[in-house]
Design brief:
It is built from six helices and ten strands. It has 232 residues and is α/β, with parallel strands linked by helices. Helix 4 links the parallel strand 6 and strand 7. Helix 1 crosses helix 6 and helix 2 packs across helix 6.
Length: 232
Amino acid sequence: MHSFQKILLEYEVLIERIARQVDAEGGELHVGYLYYDKDYYVARIRETFHRKYPKVRLVLHPYQPAELEKNLLSGKLDVAIIYGASYCENTDLQSQAFLKIPYSLFVSEHHPLAGLSEIDASALNGEKLLCPEETLQITKSNIEMERMLEEYGVEIRATIPVNNFDEVPWILEETGGVYIAPMVNLSAYGNKVVSRYIMPENYSCDVSVVWENENKNPGIQLLLSIIRICYA
């Protein structure tokens, strides 16, 4: 047997052993995610998890980005599904990336860029940019975005702080600003906000499962196995 196949077999045996243990103990796993992604990767992971491990209680919690991080770091969650964790330097955390999402531009339907079928990164020069008001500890999706803007010589005219991301459509309309983010759900902000992938699609952000080193909930390994099935 090839060494790689042997490793896979050993891993599958380990996961089945963990599954039997969690089933016997009636385990549960608390998973936090970004509220606007419920019908996308979250739904797929949930469906597959329940089908394979029906006796394990998977509890899902939707959050705003800052709240998601706080509840993971405070121990209220076993794991969180977060964008941009690969740049996080917190050694108390582990993560596993499973998706790459390109950056998109979001603007009001009345913004001049809304009429373009394609958005080149250089077209963002001189725009006002919506940015999180609170510095996030784990999510570092801004790093690749800032590299993209720098490489295309984009100078942002002003930054506009955002606290609650439900307000993005209103703030875009009121300020004429733009919002740049990696998002699976491009329709999250409704039909009054226009979204376009930013070209070229060389810049992307990971979506990762993140958990604390000290969290020994065996359900975490079951979740990771499901993600491998869904996003091999």
